[in-house]
Amino acid sequence: MAPTLYRGHRPGAQDRARDWAEIQERMLVPLYETVYDRLEVGADTRMLALGCGSGLAMLLAGARGAAVTGCDTDESLLDLARQRLMPEPTWGIGPAGLARTRLLTGTADVLEDHIRFGDYDLITAFDPAAPASRLRPALAAVARSAPRGSAVVLAGWGPPERCATSRLLAVATRLAEPRAAATRAPRLSGRDDLEDLARHAGLRPDGSGRVSCPFGYADAPSAVRGLLSTGLFDAAVEATDQQQVEKEITEALHPYRRPDGTVRMDNVFRYMIARA
User: Fold this and answer.
1) Looking at the 3D structure of the chain, how many domains does it have?
2) Under DSSP, is residue 241 helix (H, G, I), strand (E, B) or coil?
3) Where do transmembrane segments lie in this chain (predicted)?
4) Inter-residue contact 70 to 146 (CB < 8 Å)
């Protein structure tokens, strides 16, 4: 029997943000760490995280010594990021006098007057669920103002045949039809999607890679909550209802459930490094 989460109604922003922070976000740690290793993120790094969410990628960069600034439009996620990153009034001063940790509400293009792009040598847009239409204005602002040669990292899904979660996302697409088909934003999963996005923003592609990011959950209800927290099922919920989407996700998870009740889906994510 499918689990009924949130008593049959759509979860609030705080519940959803906490599900993302506690269940789903950690699935992308291999992506973050691979990029940081490749770019040798350390004490001299000054990083700006676009769509920083609840701050795990910033936390990992900060643990390497980087000074980190993040911006996001979701206040519920930013509240969790503050709890993670700023338990004390300040972490002190980082490279070139930059505050070691900053969190801002908004997108980079809207905050362009408040963010000195010249302060940063690494800009990340790690959210693979972010549609290109949402990223373009922020990346264009980066291209206009970031120091020449600064690294800009974009992330997206790997080929569908390498991503077990594609089967779940197909459920979201089917449930969203036909009501949300015209407005649903495509995922960045095509071979050249990240490069095209960078070029259109005025950035120069300069390398890419793939990373294995398995999605592992303690049980099926946790998997449902984690997947719903990504936002990728929002159109399906709008077109049907919360309980129907939960039921369909649970059924689609059956091939990935293990004898001990845990759930594992193997996925590959792609990242691309561009230069301002």
Assistant:
1) 1
2) coil
3) none
4) no
